[in-house]
Amino acid sequence: MSIPANLKYTASHEWVRTEPDGTVTIGITKHAEELLGDMVFVESPKEGRKLKVKEECAVVESVKAAADIYAPISGEVTESNSELDNTPESINSDPYSAWMFKMKPDNPDDVAALMDASAYQAFIDGEGH
Amino acid sequence: MALKQTPLNAAHRAMGAKMVDFGGWDMPVNYGSQIDEHHQVRNDCGMFDVSHMRVVDVKGEGVRHFLSYLLANNVNKLTHSGKALYSCMLLENGGVIDDLIVYFMQEDWFRIVVNAGTADNDIAWMQQQAAEYAPKVTIVDCPEMAIIAVQGPNARAKVWGAMPGSKVSTEQLAPFTAAAVGAMFIARTGYTGEDGFEVILPASAAPMFWAALAENGVKPIGLGARDTLRLEAGMNLYGQDMNETTNPLEAGLAWTVDLKSERDFIGKTALLANPASYKLVGLVLQDRGVLRGHQTVHTDHGDGEITSGSFSPTLEKSIALARVPKAVQIGEQVKVSIRDKMLAANVVKYPFVRNGKGLI
To answer: N or C: which end of chain A has fewer CB within 10 A?
Structure first.
């Protein structure tokens, strides 16, 4: 399973991409997608909501189970991907394109502190044991 | 502890199954997409390895009389060889030890298929009861038998394609009857709400039969789709919809409990003394979200609880079975607590889907 090198990752299996304008885009990793299976429901946080790091802020549900999504950093939600309301299965087809929401970080350095691709790979390898 | 394996374990892995620990068994949850597998069964047919379930043969003089006392449904309804009956096995207090299918083979031999997780406990209970009430009856555990279910509108034709010799003896089988074909036992039963067969066969023969079905275009289906198929079909799942603390009359199982005949059976006295105050109903979620087991159902007549809930691939809505106060009527609207929200659901009569068609 290839983990994109240009993204950052959390221990709760969110991916985080820093955009040129300084906002960050957030979704769930292929690893999380494979654990959950067919997605049937996504609830993303509302625009303008202020989040603290590790706060529960969204939910994805597959046929099998519900999973909470946590804010990878502190900041404000600037956009929510409402297209996922009707096409939750797009997370299955390409989890790294099917983003869930965007945030403006309180502190841009917080993103740098997240895991990079090789650290995340080591983390999920370790989780299996 | 190492996970138990069915004789088809290698076949599942070769077909790309995602394997999970299912009550101590290494079983396929899907082979890709659970939703695709679900539709495959509704629209064509698919095959399930359910060899983790246990075949128990009950043999000897007086076996019918023994089973008429052991089981809540009445085995005297089984009048000809091959006829099947769905029943619960109850504790003295009326709680459900397991649900099962019993087949009448011959007057001194009935075959029972029980759930995997409860099998050892079931057998111990049967042996204990036999020792007390029917010393000439023996309980024969058959863990070496495999079970393959082939389900869907085209299931029977595909079985005949894979095993042409089976057609003559199974073509005339009515639903809920079975026939022996060589070492195989083929029953027109299932757990999906579709037509099809459940085939009990020796473990050594299972890989070849599975491969023959695959060569005839039958797709493998994981336990994930098995659960959404049975939920749409409104069929109870032991451990979720009922257990040893459940009154079967409050779990949608009254139709399987024969209280009319004179016959005594284990649990009868308790059931007669404890009339049902809850009942099992279907729910269809109106708002966006997914109903799940253990969510609280708020009704005008008091609270209830979801026992099984998921997303219905056929209806493309979330559905559930829920135990609610008896006064709740079909057509009422209820609220379900999902995380921090109260979502609207309609009370419906189940099954939700039968023979490929939505009934809601």
So the answer is: C
> Among B353, B352, B324, B348, which Cα is nearest to B251's?
B324
Beta-strand pair A24-28/A39-43: unpaired
Residue reference for tokens 């039968």 = B354
Tell me, yes or no, if B35 comes closer than 8 A to chain A by beta carbon. yes
Structural domains for chain B: 277-358 (2.40.30.110)
Residues of A in contact with B30 (CB under 8 A): 37
Hey, are the CB atoms on B310 and A41 less than 8 Å from each other? Answer: no
Whether the Cβ atoms of residue B103 and residue B178 lie closer than 8 Å to each other: yes
| Distance (Å, whole) CA A43 – CA A31 | 19
Task: With H, G, I as helix, E, B as strand and everything else as coil, classify residue B121.
Answer: helix
Q: How many domains does chain A have?
A: 1
Segment (H or E) for A69: strand A66-70
Q: Which residues touch B226 (CB under 8 Å, ≥6 apart)?
A: B48, B50, B191, B192
Whole-model pTM over 0.80: yes
Residue A92 at interface with chain B, using a CB cutoff of 8 Å: yes
Q: Identify the domain containing residue A114 by its residue range.
A: 28-127
> CA-to-CA distance for B192 and B197, rounded, in angstroms?
11
Q: Give a yes or no: residue A17 inside a domain.
A: no
pLDDT digits (tens, 9 = 90+) for B142-189: 999 999 999 999 999 999 999 999 999 999 999 999 999 999 999 999
Q: For residue A7, is it within any domain?
A: no
Contact B229, B38 (CB under 8 A): yes
Q: Is A106 on the interface with B (CB under 8 A)?
A: no
* ipTM over cut 0.90: no
- The CA distance from B145 to A121, in Å, is 42
Residue B290 has its nearest CB partner, among A37, A41, A85, at: A41
Taking contacts as CB-CB distances below 8 angstroms, the residues of chain B near A85 are 288
CB contact under 8 Å between A38 and B228, yes or no, is: no
pLDDT in tens, B289-330: 999 999 999 999 999 999 999 999 999 999 999 999 999 999
Q: In Å, how far is B341's CA from the nearest CA of chain A?
A: 12
| Residue A104 in domain | yes
